């Protein structure tokens, strides 16, 4: 139906939900006030609240957009002049998959796992489009990983594969920033150090918006590309996933209750710095792009 984002006209104003359409961002708070001369519902101040609002919230957005036709410019912004937040700022859970693309497994000399191999990040790592990634004092091997992220749309547990689509709200771009000198080497029998290897501040850029699932009937046709300073480093299709989205969600929900706004990032294709030795440096501009969704752009700033 729509591309939904969380933004403010500038960093000093309050967050609100917007819709990206025709190269402009429509402010749903202002649109509601213009149309109805009333205080907007809480749904329009937080994307997680909006998702929890279910079909009623989405129907209200459709109604507003229909009634607004011809007056969009009164409540719209230039998408290059706003402040972007992660499309979900406060997910209860952020799941990621290790080695979920066949070619990525080959380049890092890893055999495919027998079942989805999951690790997590926390909300301290989340940042939005056009926001800075810290090049931390604690690491000298900062890496990138463009990934397709799935946003959960309703509460569920023990979800069967054939019903997973009912629980998906939409998709967004995720960049799994990794700190390889902290992640490796593994220590037997404990494995990799996932917390610092993946979870440092600003290490989870996400956005710029969520595309609702009806706009992407087949996510495996999506093309994932990552550029560093314009140089293509990753370029592949989601069809190379080892475990598909229905398998991943069935696996995760086996004993864990998934909730609206939860994020599951589905792994990265080949081309990462870990394999090439081309790690990131302060000043780099990273563009993670997924067809039918958009470009998530961030830049590295040295931590003071």
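^ Assign residues to that structure.
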């Amino acid at each position: 139906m729509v591309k939904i984002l969380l933004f403010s006209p500038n960093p000093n104003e309050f967050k609100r939900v917007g819709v990206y359409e025709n190269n402009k961002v429509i402010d749903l708070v202002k649109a509601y006030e213009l149309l109805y001369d009333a205080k907007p519902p809480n749904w329009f101040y937080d994307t997680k609240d909006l998702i929890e609002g279910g079909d009623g919230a989405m129907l209200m957005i459709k109604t507003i957009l229909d009634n607004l036709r011809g007056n969009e410019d009164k409540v719209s912004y230039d998408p290059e002049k706003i402040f972007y937040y992660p499309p979900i700022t406060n997910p209860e859970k952020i799941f990621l998959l290790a080695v979920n693309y066949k070619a990525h497994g080959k380049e890092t000399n890893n055999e495919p796992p027998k079942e989805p191999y999951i690790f997590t990040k926390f909300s301290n790592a989340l940042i939005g489009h056009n926001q800075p990634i810290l090049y931390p004092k604690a690491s000298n091997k900062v890496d990138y990983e463009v990934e397709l992220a799935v946003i959960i749309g309703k509460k569920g547990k023990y979800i069967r594969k054939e019903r997973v689509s009912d629980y998906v709200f939409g998709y967004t771009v995720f960049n799994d920033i990794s700190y390889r000198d902290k992640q490796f080497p593994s220590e037997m029998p404990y494995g990799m150090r996932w917390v610092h290897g993946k979870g440092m501040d600003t290490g989870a850029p996400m956005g710029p918006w969520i595309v609702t699932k009806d706009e992407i009937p087949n996510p495996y046709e999506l093309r994932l590309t990552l550029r560093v300073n314009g140089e293509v480093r990753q370029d592949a299709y989601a069809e190379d996933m080892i475990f598909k989205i229905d398998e991943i969600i069935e696996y995760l929900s086996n004993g864990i209750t998934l909730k609206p706004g939860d994020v599951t990032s589905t792994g990265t294709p080949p081309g990462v710095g870990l394999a090439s030795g081309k790690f990131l440096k302060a000043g780099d501009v990273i563009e993670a792009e997924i067809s039918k969704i958009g470009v998530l752009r961030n830049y590295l700033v040295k931590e003071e």
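The chain is about 20% helix and 30% strand.
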